[in-house]
Amino acid sequence: MFRRRVLCPDCRKDAAYAEGFAKIEAVVRETRSAVVKRYRNAADIRCRRGHSHTFRVDGRQEREAIRPDFCRACNILAKFQEFSEKAKDLGITVLESQWIAASRPHRALCFVGHEFDLVPNKMKRGCPLCPRGMYGGTVPPHDVYYVVSGWDAATGEDTMKPGISSGVGHNRLRQHADDGLAAQHLRITGLPLGMARALERFVLAGLDREGWLSTRGVEYFPLSALHDVMDLAGEWFTDQPGLSARPVVVDVSDVYNAVVAPEVLDVVDIDVDTAVVFDSDDTRPSLAS
């Protein structure tokens, strides 16, 4: 007859601690976080966006709390990103740079230029200032992709932002200029249905893989990320059937005339029917002739 082996209390505690620390290591690998400091019964963790958290291992509930969605700040950011994507499906751009609350209004802009308050859990109708049915049930898609940069008045940092808009994009670009992002490095108009959204997702995913962290919201990044954004955009276009990446020679006067506000300079405006770019050097007016 075999007797069941029973661990002593100290051994049970050591086994539970080992289980907890093993879970911590797994979560750190999965979320690209880092262990800042390890204690006998806990570990301080810093997520990849720099948020701090402490995992404890000396209780069953504490060990169960060791999971990939541990970072509350990152969860809020993901919720804001989901909200922004749903708004884009309605032809709306969320102007806020952070999540407020599901029942609270967020500043937003519809594709025809109406600015209004958008409540996340009451957004089925779309823009309240646009008459019902005026678009025949079809919202014009985002068909503009742009890249702007400048000194961000909200953060006080040199910042760049890739984004999408509709029409010619001037309403959104003017708002960026008002916020300090006045240098427009790229604007591609007339993109086929769904292409602007796909390009935006590709670039943002690439920036995430490269380790770039947003300075606010989910689409504002350090100015030093500009080169990677342009390279990612070129890479994406190269893989699209019927399109190829190639340099474009732009007349300097045409570049400046493409801007509505005269104080906003350095625009490259590209029509996808005639040309697709890019190396970041190709978008500098000083190289145009």
Detailed description of the structure:
- There is one protein chain.
- The protein contains 7 helices and 11 strands.
- It is an alpha+beta fold and 289 residues long.
- α5 packs across α6.
Q: Topology, please?
A:
Elements (H helix, E strand, L loop, with lengths): L8 H23 L2 E5 L3 E5 L5 E5 L3 H5 L7 H18 L2 E3 L11 E5 L4 E4 L25 E9 L4 E9 L4 H9 L4 E7 L5 H15 L11 E2 L3 H13 L13 H6 L11 E3 L18
Parallel strand pairs: 9-11
Antiparallel strand pairs: 1-2, 2-3, 4-5, 5-6, 7-8, 7-9, 8-10
Helix pairs in contact: 5-6
Averaged pLDDT, please?
78
Alpha-beta content class: alpha+beta
Give the amount of beta strand, in percent: 15-25%
* Tally of DSSP β-strands: 11
In DSSP terms (H or I, runs of 4 or more residues), the helix count works out at 7
Strand order of the largest sheet: 10-8-7-9-11
